[in-house]
Structure formats: structure tokens, C-alpha cells
Amino acid sequence: MSAREIPIVGSHPTTKRDIRAVTEYLAVVPIAPGMFRVYNEDATKDHIVDLEGGACTCRDFQYRSPTLGDRGCKHIRRVRVREGIDELPPVPRRRIDPTLLIELEAQTAATSIDRAEAHTVEADRESPTEQNRTGDRPNDRSHQ
Fold this sequence. Notes:
This protein is an alpha+beta fold. 42% of the residues lie in helices and 12% in strands.
């Protein structure tokens, strides 16, 4: 899938937080399973996102979490998009953080490789090897 084929249609009403989550320059770094550190553009601020617990250390989440809904603050939303849980909101591609696009492309490529490897392994299991078809045993010299 090329970069232009990444889906940009969200399945929920788009909010300003959704747009900021994908257009602002944010760096997401996994720090533990389900836990991420999200840095702002100049790395002067960072917030910890607990994806499984649906929490963030930012002030927006701390003060407004009951009103943010299950998608949370922009940091949680960014991690959810990056991890493939949510789709990109309908935002012009030129406005999306290039780092996010690169991460999504890398995930798409890795998923394609994983699928291809799984298909190859499955195909190897289903088709007999040349030796099995002829009845030869590679280490059996008694027939020579």
C-alpha cells in the first residue's frame, strides 16, 4: 500500500482534537506494553499515555477527561491512530504530520511482509517437497 492509499476516513464525528492529534508534530515512543511517551514538536514537553487504561498525564485529560469521551485527549488519539486502533480523520494529506505518515507506512509494509511470510509458511506446509514426491531420503545411503 502506498502512502496515498492510507485510509483517511474516520468512523466517528471529527473534532478539533482529532485534527490536532494528526496534524501537530508529535513524537510517540513506546516505553512499555500499552504505554507511550508523547513528545511535543520541540521535545520540551512530554506526556505518558496509558493506552490500555485510557489515560494521559496532560492537563487536558486531567481536567476534561469526563467530557472527552472514550477517545481521550489528542495524545491518546495520536497513539490510537499510530497503533492502528483508529483511522486517520478526514484531513488533507498535506496537513498530516509527516512522521505519522512514515510510521503508518512502515506498519503497513510490516503487516504486508508478515502476511506474505505467513502465506509462504502455510504454502510450504501444504505442498510436499521434491524429496517426498520421489520417495528419496536425503540421508539414507542404503539405496545407492
